[in-house]
Amino acid sequence: MDNETAKNLRKSLKADCMNCFGLCCTALNIAASSDFAINKTAGTPCPNLQRDFRCKIHENLREKGFKGCTVFDCLGAGQKVSQVTFNGQSWQERPEIAEKMFRVFPIMEQLYEMIAFIAEALTYEVSHSLQDKLNKQLEKLQSFTDMDADSLLSLNIVECRIPVNELLLETSEYIRSELSSKVFAIKKGKKYRGIDWVGKNLTGKDLRTTDLRGAYLIAADLRNSDLRGVDFIGADLRDANLNGANLSTSMFLTQMQVNSAKGNDKTILPAHIQKPFHWND
């Protein structure tokens, strides 16, 4: 897969709620918190889910205490399970398939997350050997998504992640080195994996090519910071202030991470990330 095809694939990985049977509203376990107004066990439909699989408070989710719903993004796993794995048969029409469908959805969601990361890795100019490994891994993951429900349930998702994580780390190290030396003419950013920067004032900081994998950036002040070339895999950006921040070439940043943060019209995002509607609030 060439770079342009990979870019198109990455951009195409979006939820299509009209072709999903409300799986994120039923399959997942929800604990009451600042993000969700209620407790809900996995497999139980949210009380706001209507018979047509639409949300009756969709326009007011954040005001009603369901901020987490506006953050979530399955990347297209929901419609894949609904329309392909279960051939367009809904759990309402066939209650006997509900339990299996709800168990398959989180697995498919994780596969789609891995596909999105590998697709992004393929958008970068990497060595031929790394590109070959990424392409083979992508084909393998895509083949998994086409398996039947029982085969998906038998997948060891933890083992699936191991080669993916290794390839993403290799890609990150290579691209951040290239950006540092050939584009920014700076030393490669430091590794701050898993660091606790909750609420930290990072206003205007130059963090280019920093490794922030798994970093806790909850409510961190990142206004006007330069975050180009930063690896954000697994970073927690809930309520982080990204006003005016430059994330244009940040790596492995997801829509969910951005949805959970705060930003404005001056925040520069990667091409495959959309500005959240609530940033206008």
What do you see in this structure?
With 281 residues, the protein is an all-alpha fold. It folds into 2 domains: 3-176, no CATH class; 189-281, Pectate Lyase C-like (3 Solenoid), CATH 2.160.20. Helix content is 37%, strand content 0%. It has helices at 3-12, 67-71, 77-85, 98-121, 128-145, 149-153, 157-184, 255-260. The longest helix has 28 residues, at 157-184. It is globular, with a radius of gyration of 19 Å. The mean pLDDT is 95.
Largest sheet: none
Number of DSSP E strands: 0
Label the structural class.
Answer: mainly alpha
Rg over CA atoms, rounded to whole Å, is 19 Å
Global geometry? globular
Average residue pLDDT: 95
What fraction of the residues are assigned to beta strands by DSSP? under 5%
Helix content: 25-40%
The oligomerization state is: single chain
The helix-strand sequence is: HHHHHHHH
Give the number of domains. 2
Indicate the low-confidence ranges by residue numbers: none
Protein name: Pentapeptide repeat-containing protein
Pfam families: Pentapeptide
